[in-house]
Amino acid sequence: MDEFWVFGYGSLMWNPGFSYVEKAEALIFGYRRSLCVHSWVHRGTQASPGLVLGLDRGGSCRGMAFSIAAAEWDEVLNYLRERELVTNVYLERTLPIRLADGRRVTAVAYIVDRDHQQYAGTLDAIEAAHIVDSAVGQSGPNDAYVFNTLAHLREMGIRDQWLEQVAGEIERMREAS
């Protein structure tokens, strides 16, 4: 392996937690950003799970890619495994991505394991909004996670229409009550 890239589609984009040589907007095909993971700790509980992002099959996803210096490959990979594989709801994969400048590289990415018990499946925006609106975990309210994610995506110039629909449904539910 000549290069080591990491693809981020959620908090890794703005809070990678590791050093990198280069950061570039990137596109991955065959996967989409989705609130498809039941959160039992950080944004919910087992009794009242929240939803957090996963990279699920279908579509494409704009995110950030990070090039890692060769001397730090092992350290960064160990860090990512501790961060992303806590409950093994994500699978570590090396996938092709396209950088904003047109370069095609492969990157480590963490996709959701559809066979894992925390996989929420494909939800519509209304279903997701109802779950997110009421869930709270150790890291705070689930809605704060969604609104914070959207704010960061907007700052980066990335639109996620489905996530925007979920946030819009949460706001409508609150206005109606």
Secondary-structure blueprint:
Elements: E1 5-8, E2 22-39, E3 50-67, H1 73-84, E4 90-99, E5 104-112, H2 125-134, E6 136-137, E7 140-141, H3 142-155, H4 161-176
Parallel strand pairs: 1-5
Antiparallel strand pairs: 1-3, 2-3, 2-4, 4-5, 6-7
Keywords: Lyase
Organism: Rhizobium leucaenae
GO molecular function: glutathione specific gamma-glutamylcyclotransferase activity
In short:
The protein is an alpha+beta fold and 177 residues long. The protein is built from four helices and seven strands, in the order βββαββαββαα.
Q: What does the largest sheet look like?
A: 5 strands, mixed, barrel
Residues in helix, %: 25-40%
What CATH calls the topology is Hypothetical upf0131 protein ytfp
Q: What's the name of the CATH homologous superfamily?
A: Gamma-glutamyl cyclotransferase-like
Secondary-structure-based class equals alpha+beta
- What is the correct CATH architecture? Roll
Q: Kindly report the spatial arrangement of strands forming the biggest sheet.
A: 1-3-2-4-5
What share of the residues does DSSP label as strand, in percent? Answer: 35-45%
Mass-distribution shape: globular
C-alpha-based Rg, rounded? 16 Å
Report the strand count.
7
- Overall domain count: 1
Characteristics of this structure?
177 residues, alpha+beta, Hypothetical upf0131 protein ytfp, two-stranded antiparallel sheet, 4 helices, 7 strands, 36% strand
